[in-house]
Amino acid sequence: MRVAALYDVHGSLWALDAVLAEIDRKGGADRVLIEGDVCWGPRQTLERLIARGAGPESRLREALAGVGQARDIRASDFPANDEYVQLLLEPPSGDWAATFFEDMAAKRARPTS
Q1: Which superkingdom does the taxonomy of this entry point to (predicted)?
Q2: Helices (H), ranges, 26-93
């Protein structure tokens, strides 16, 4: 399995596009992992990663261990400031945005200690 790990995107769409192009140039990756700041920038950054099927490292660990099942990417898979991402998604459109708001509500309802 070929894995590409991306960290600290910080909303830099041009840099993200350059890195994704380099991954493709080198033969692609079976999995693109995102662990770090993604959303401090244009909405297109998040859209590009979701379209690519990129997801967090924890999902790969589960898959390799045979735990859990594959699922669609959700906005809450990407570490971000909830309020900022909500602004990126206004007005909410489609299942992806609806899933984001459901995930954020569930996150806030969970005990933290």
Answers
A1: Bacteria
A2: 43-52, 57-65, 82-89
